[in-house]
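Checked the freezer inventory, then went back to the computational side. Two predictions to log before the end of the day. The first one is the construct we discussed on Monday; recording sequence and tokens without edits.
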Amino acid sequence: MRRNADRFPPDFSFVLTRQEVTNLKSQIATSSLHGGRRSLPRVFTEHGALMAANVLNSKRAVEMSVK
């Protein structure tokens, strides 16, 4: 996304809050013992995910853009 910033309008992604990250970790049983993030993760909206699939050049990206 950083290399193709002009293709991603600001509303195609957003940064999770600390509470949202905590909730996700508890839902998917992520271990916090090894390493960790220094910044909050950026996530894509549905439109942003499709745009990312169009930018990426892989078999899986093509599959996602078709569905």
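The second is the one RB wanted added to the comparison set:
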Amino acid sequence: MSEASTRAVTTFQRPHVHFTPHQYWMNDPNGLIWLEGEYHLFFQHNPHGNEWGHMSWGHAVSRDLLSWTELPVAIWHDDLEGVFSGSVVYDAQNTSGLGSMAQPALIAIYTSALVEEPQLQRQSIAYSTDRGRTWTKYEGNPVLDEGLRDFRDPLVRWDPRQERWVMVLARSSEQRIGIYSSADLLTWRHESDFGPAGAIDGAWECPDLFELPLVDDPSKTRWILIVSLNPGGPHGGSGTQYFIGDFDGQRFVPDSFDAQWADFGTENYAGVTFNDEPEGRRILIGWMNTWQSARRPVVTPWNGMMTLPRELHLARDSRGLRLSMTPVAEVEARRGEAIMPDVLNSDGGFSWQVAHAAYDLKLDLAVNEQTELCVEVEGEDQVSVRYCVRSGRMHVSRAGSGIVPEEFEVFLTEEPSDSRSIRVIFDHGSIEWFVDSKAVTIGIPTALERLTITGSSVVGIGAAHLYPLS
């Protein structure tokens, strides 16, 4: 790693609007669920140090998805098992018998990664009857064991149509997703497998399966299967692909076996969505990192951060249905007073230089052959993002950062348009860029010391707002 990169890591500041643990290593989000006014975020965590190991479940809660209170470690590793990724459900009908009708249990379904040879991976459960504050491992574990080594990351939801639980989990080295059902969370039946399909140049991990209404016709719905991939992403590292199709409670049948990418950047992995979100929103959080860069040295008390929570939609463009993402509406409550005029006529171009901690940028740009937007983030390392609105081409450079890849290009436009809607969230350690609700997540190696935005357009800009975020 370069000297410049080492300096950047040394002076790295804690993000303002992204979750980071108080200290030590963090990776995949786990067990996302809402209960009694609280959003619960569990996460893969090493309670003993800044490197991967001793996998346990960290735990944090929030009432607005942005301000998090970290709680004690929820589920600990022990001499027999590491506690790998999984999910949490609210057993309202006490199907498991581990709670009661008066006091239903939260049930965590996680992968037991056996410490000793042959290092098998099995599915186990733990339960809590005090709103997730304390957890007990089920004495009858494991609840699902097929004698496999790459058999992990169970995601469980209640299927009201068939009145039973449904699980999707990864047979990682086979590039398959197994689908299972259960009446009580304790005994599981294999229903079917999906895959290989789409991108298969790495291990499949952290699946999620859910139903979404169409934006242009909410009376119709489709099912989305999310599958993370490591490596084999759009830029060679980790990535997250998805499939759109039908699910009848037993089998998932995709409309196409080709991969679509949920994020066109390089630092959004293992994302899953919340159970029981009270407003019916489908909200995703991902780990803002990639395994190709995650193990680089850091000297901050913590190692790892999450993406902003994002609301998912099923939109349509000229190529058909696609998954779109927008930052959750709660971000707007963190805005300060806008520091841009409402309307700018920029025939001669525009340029702003601002210095703050975090920003929310919203631009509506007219499209012509000259339209271009350039963003430079300055710290002890300089990061530049240049986006040509007409072509949809984005070039990202963070040379010397130690983050892989240091340079990459993204093409975000599949169809012509005379305007583009752009939303960019800047924070210490990250840029999250949304072009017409297509996401590009970019990790940066430095605290945000200065943000420079320049652009040119012979037609002009519509609305333009830059909000400081508290």
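For RB: The chain has two domains: 19-307, 334-468. The radius of gyration is 22 Å. Let me know if you want it refolded.
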